[in-house]
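Customer escalation, tier 2.

The customer says the design service returned an amino acid string that "doesn't look like it belongs to this structure." They asked us to rerun it and document both sides in this ticket. The original structure tokens are below, unchanged.
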């Protein structure tokens, strides 16, 4: 467990994921990429503050209780209703989303300096709240590690060229960036993920990691480092929160001094644990350690 003063600040949306599967009743899970990441970091033992928005409704209470159960300190501006997304799962557990989300985060003055700041997804690019997010990031740039996950939602991104400009602005402000191959395919159709990662490194980050679903993940660094890790084979319940779990584990083990290969390996293991059970349910530190040891042993045989 880190010192309470050495906290990670996560900025972005909470979303009530209404999971809808044919022939089954709806199930509501706490969600939202930044909220999932905050929860995942807290489960791994990090001290986390989440700056977000919640409504005074049942979904808001559900999400707050979920986050606080892991130890996340929730600082939420009140909005009329908690954002939601209908999540439809296909036969392979892959998710498609329909959103009811606004993002209006007011300017915020936080007095304590975090050791790291994470921004991502809707909250990083959707106005008017994105302006408040970027102002906070610019305030702490150079004093805290900045990480970013675009977690692209095409239905909310608007016109592609404008979305690319907004995403690249966030990339340029960040030290560490993670994206999925699906994110990159929407932002830059037809361009290889490796080429995008290399180009993003020229904008400012020192590290770019890209998840490849069933193919695992790779990472590139500004000093020429190149690593990749295969996916961990599991039976998939659903893919909700897999990328957020990857990012939480990657940030956690990277902060502990683990080398790049080890970071990727533990991050894909965390993602595998998450997809093996319903909802955005990332592993605890003990679960991740046990699974990493189990898969390492299996790989050595």
């Amino acid at each position: 467990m880190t010192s309470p003063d050495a906290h990670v600040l996560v900025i972005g949306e909470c979303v009530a994921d209404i999971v809808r599967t044919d022939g089954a009743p709806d199930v509501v899970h706490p969600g939202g990429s930044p909220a999932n990441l905050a929860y995942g970091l807290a489960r791994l033992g990090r001290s986390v503050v989440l700056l977000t928005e919640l409504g005074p409704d049942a979904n808001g209470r559900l999400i707050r209780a979920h986050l606080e159960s892991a130890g996340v300190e929730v600082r939420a501006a009140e909005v009329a209703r908690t954002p939601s997304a209908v999540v439809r799962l296909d036969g392979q557990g892959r998710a498609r989303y329909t959103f009811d989300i606004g993002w209006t985060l007011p300017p915020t003055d936080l007095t304590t300096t975090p050791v790291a700041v994470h921004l991502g997804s809707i909250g990083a690019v959707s106005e008017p709240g994105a302006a408040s997010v970027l102002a906070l990031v610019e305030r702490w740039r150079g004093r805290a590690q900045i990480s970013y996950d675009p977690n692209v939602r095409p239905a909310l991104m608007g016109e592609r060229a404008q979305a690319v400009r907004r995403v690249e602005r966030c990339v340029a402000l960040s030290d560490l960036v993670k994206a999925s191959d699906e994110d990159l395919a929407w932002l830059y159709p037809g361009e290889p993920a490796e080429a995008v990662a290399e180009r993003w490194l020229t904008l400012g980050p020192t590290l770019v990691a890209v998840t490849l679903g069933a193919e695992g993940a790779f990472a590139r660094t500004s000093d020429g480092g190149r690593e990749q890790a295969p996916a961990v084979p599991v039976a998939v319940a659903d893919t909700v929160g897999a990328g957020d779990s990857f990012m939480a584990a990657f940030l956690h083990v990277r902060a502990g001094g683990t080398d790049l290969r080890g970071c990727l390996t533990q991050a894909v293991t965390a993602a595998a644990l998450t997809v093996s059970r319903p909802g955005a349910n990332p592993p605890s530190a003990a679960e991740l350690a046990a699974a990493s040891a189990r898969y390492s042993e299996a790989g050595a045989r």
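Tier 2 assessment: The sequence is consistent with the input. Residues 75 and 217 are 33 Å apart (CA to CA). The first strand starts at residue 8 and ends at 11. Sent an explanation to the customer and offered a walkthrough call.
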